[in-house]
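Blinded run. Sample ID left blank on purpose so nobody reads anything into the name before looking at the predicted structure. Input follows.
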Amino acid sequence: MPGFWDDQVKAQAQMRRLSRLRDEVNTWRDLSRRVADALDLLDLAESEADESMTDDLLAEVNAIEATLEKLEFQIRLSGEHDRDDALLSIHAGAGGTESQDWAEMLLRMYLRWAEANGYQTEILDLMPGEEAGLKSVTALIRGPWAYGYLKTERGVHRLVRLSPFDAAHRRHTSFALVEVMPDIEDDIEVNINPDDLRIDVYKSSGAGGQHVQKNATAIRITHEPTGVVVTCQNERSQAQNREMAMRILRGRLYDLARKKREEEQAQLKGEHVDAGWGNQIRSYVLHPYKMVKDHRTGYEVGNAEAVLDGRLNDFIEAYLRQTVGQD
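Blinded prediction complete.
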């Protein structure tokens, strides 16, 4: 196509979309080939009455069924950015060290989930707690359908446990807010006026050696019309931090627009929308019993340690099955 590469940003975005579509087509073609091979193996097993071949066939059929179920579920994700990478932010709630420790536990949970499901992760910005844990953190989760799956996690998460920071070892309740935005790399979906931005450069405060403290490479961008503030200090160059901060800003502005649209739709339906801290989406109870319960779906499990170790797929799928098709 003449002039396709004149706009490098748009051309690269189109090539990424083409690559994703090619991968999807190849996945379905590979599954079709496996089905054909399994049918051939079935005919051969029946003709030779070979029990060992039957065992192999059953194993392959089970694998095909698992793959097909996953692919069929992904088809039901129809959001505009469901296939994209995700920007995940965690903010500790009121409660000081307790909530900051809880924010770090949530980060570990999501990093474990990402690792188990083949996603790549990168910490973009991190503000450590004063004594332990994290005040806030933003991570990039790379891989197909990352946003489609992780968007189910946005909201307030509540932890109930015996405090490791309380000398009397009393039970405490902690809260943390999880935000999930799509990683929007260009301005096609979100238009940002440069005159609306205030950009500050400062020294990074995270770990990384003395050079991090000496060089002003961290970036803070304030979008003045909305008051949205984003930071990036992941120990790279100032230019790279600025580029990533803009991507985070686009994601946050997109999320603001989504929330506004949902609130308008809810008002038309006569529903009350409350984004308050008391409106938690999930509770993690470690004392006096162990349970993790999603308050939106009612789905719950007793193995809280497994959930905190990243076993989230059942919660994610339960929510998606309940909500897909309602938007």
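Unblinding after everyone has recorded impressions. Confidence is low (pLDDT under 50) at residues 207-213, 272-276.
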